[in-house]
Amino acid sequence: MSNGRHLAPRPGFVLDVDRNSPPIVFHHGEGFRLEKLPPGRSRVIYPAEPLEGLADPDGAIRHALDNPLGDSEPLRALLHSDMKLTIAFDDISLPLPPMRRPDIRQRVIEAVLDLAAEAGVDDVHLIAALAVHRRMTEDELRHAVGDRVYDAFAPDGRLYNHDAEDPDGMVVLGETPHGEDVQFSRRAAESDLVVYVNINLVAMDGGHKSTATGLSGYTSLRHHHNVHTMSNSRSFMDQKNSALHASNWRMGKVLKDAGVKIFQIETTVNNDTFGRQGPMALLQKREWEWSTRDRMQFLAMKAGLDLMPTGAKRKAFSSWQAPYALTSVQAGEIEAVHEVTTANVYRQQLVAVEGQTDILTMGLPYICPYNVNSIMNPILVMCLGLGYFFNLYRGRPLVREGGVLILSHPTPWEFHPVHHPSYIDFFEQVLADTTDPAEIERKYEKQFAEDEWYIHLYRNSYAYHGVHPFYMWYWGTHALEHLGRVIIVGGDPAAVRRMGFQPASSLQDALEMASDVVGPQPTITHMKNPPILMADVT
Amino acid sequence: MKALQFRRNLPRYAAARIAGGFVPGGGASAGPLSLIDMDPPTAPGPDWVRVRPRLSGICGSDLATVDGRSARYFEPLVSFPFVPGHEVVGDLDDGTRVVLEPVLGCVSRNLHPTCTSCADGRLGNCEHTSFGDLEPGIQTGSCHDTGGGWATAFTAHRTQLHVVPDDMDDAAAVMVEPTACGVHAALAAHVPDDGVVVVLGAGTLGQVTLAALRAHAGPRTIITTARYPEQRRMAGLLGADLVIAPDEVRRAVRRTTGSRAIGAPTIDGPREGVVDRLTGGADVVVDCVGSSASLTDALAVVRPRGRIVLVGMPAEVTLELTPLWHREVELVGAYTYGTEILADGTQRRTFDMATDLVRDADLGRLVTATYPLSRYREALEHAAAAGRRGAVKIAFDLRYEKERNDL
Q: Residue ranges of the domains in chain B?
């Protein structure tokens, strides 16, 4: 029995459910469900407890800049007064949820700017490397880089969002041996040095992807954000078996050969998503370790949420900022840096799991990379469940081929019109015609990608690019090929059916429906995520 | 003879309006429509003949009348009591099978000389409606003197009758009249070659207009709104390139035309990404609904200097006309039929074109269910809920009415 104090954070854990196991908390959008899993054939994968953060994050950052990895000089040696310096940084999609101030990006960028100032560098631009994501608002940029940096650079146009559709601002630097065009930010391409500031939340982040994707546009993205790549990634979270990763690495080589010099700074955070104290803390506790007070608190929170209007719930959840702590920072040459970064991600997130399951269950939370301060629309539900969470494995998928995935999420037929205008059209037109990723790609992608209105909204408003919903759907390609059925518990039936999935009103109903596919008495595995875990399936 | 008669009865009219508000078609039970035995109408002149209906369709305008939703505009244009029914295939006494062209123009009113419109074959535009030898009534089915199709017999002027080809069955024949409306609307649309046309509504009028556009115009794309699955399926079969839900029309037209869109700002600020109206839009919108909502949609999606053709019968509507003014949009009505002037300068009777189209597009399949007169309440409720119940056209089947065969 836990007393709540541990000498060291406990690793991830697989619980075999028995008759004494308490109900399990499932994330369910801006709410939760308590679900009793069948004993004797169910298991729950718990994430590891948060690793201890670095005691002196600013000191660790300065140390990383002065002691680079791989074939790189220290940052201060790369800076000189007459140079053109571009600092690019991860956008609003990282981390999730947004972290409490000071954001890691702010800490790193301030350290980089201190060195640049010491070297007398005047020509400095800061770019939110958002590729075809929506532009960040002033508040979001301030949160990421801090008020001091924002006030120093934004007013005169030296801190801005990447614009992948700026005809004068983008340049094609070459082609990979696979015939992939490498399109890049002209400012970054013409800089003497690009410093990239990353937050590596999951294993697919970072490395060459930071720049080859973050500072590129549709011309490049179409070569790896496509059905073929997703179908050939097992999984896209596992770099050694990811076609997405391989393509970005090829593009990274083209950038290097074209003379783009990149100094990569990568960081990792711990699993302290919901805090060790406060209203969300019990989401990081294992249910059988809940105190009476925890139970009361959870029931009160759930009852309150059940009564709240959706908008109020959304606002309440969106205001949550994670107390993430920095667990590592490394800088220098991209590939050397990323190897260490990935090891640190795995150190926090990998959980050893033996064998596959017939049915995989997931409770999907209120947030994914593309609905920060926004609405989790049905396409994003699909992407989070069948894209991100399904692919959070190494070795084999958690669920066997032909098995069933059961998601829990309200899946409202609702879209944020400013952030996701092309999603609405994708849902109304494309999914009404077909849900097959390959057919969707062939019939519709070009039309949406080149739609002038979407491009206008991407460049001038706060809209994801017209092609973005396609990528979200492609993200689920591997899962769609692998699974025998997808069921969503508690979702809007019409929205769920539009996506080709089956709605169920309760987990029990869903399990019964799943037995049509996997037979009676199936094995069940619940992936309790977030906090994030990655299954190492043997 | 047996007939469904509509009488002037204000309390019952009010009751029909209330009942129809609760259940579409409910006005049949509470309103001034009743099934009665009555004398057949007397022929008003020597050129009038008796028609014994075989099938008689239920039209949207009939339902509006039954449910007390008709515009007051029609009050001086009808004569009470009257027997509704203007979509008719029937038999003459000599056994000839005919369809009725119900418009009552100058000739049938025994007015000589005829008005300019009638002289040109544009009977629907008759300038002498409600004058002459007949009581008021713009069509058979709203004129006391002629009777109407919801009866075992009525009387018709010979010029109103078209012989049905032997190879055309009754279901197809009863579709000729509504199809003629669709043909007239499609030609009134003046669709530019390679243009984009939007058809709002996928009831009978929407479906036949869609078929007519496909047959008699050369649009690049036809977008049709349809609320129900069977309507969507049928619209696809009849040639719609894109069938969408009514609330998706603005986005669909924007995508298809490559237009940009404007979201009206609110107190919370601008709403980029919201599609309130388009900056460009469709060349032509054919409104087969005729409501405030459909006309507002039409104005939101038609391009500057585009054309809106109003086919669905409106009553009073509330409409923001600023876009009509600002974008120099043409709004034209399309009522019934007559003689059409084709692109090559030739003229054809709309009914002849409709007869061809009914055959070519197999529009007889739109007749989904038929009822005897005695079950008129069910028939009207079915017709009022046709889309939801997977139907398109509901008709009365009078072929087996005892009174018909006793006449």
A: 2-177+357-406, 190-333
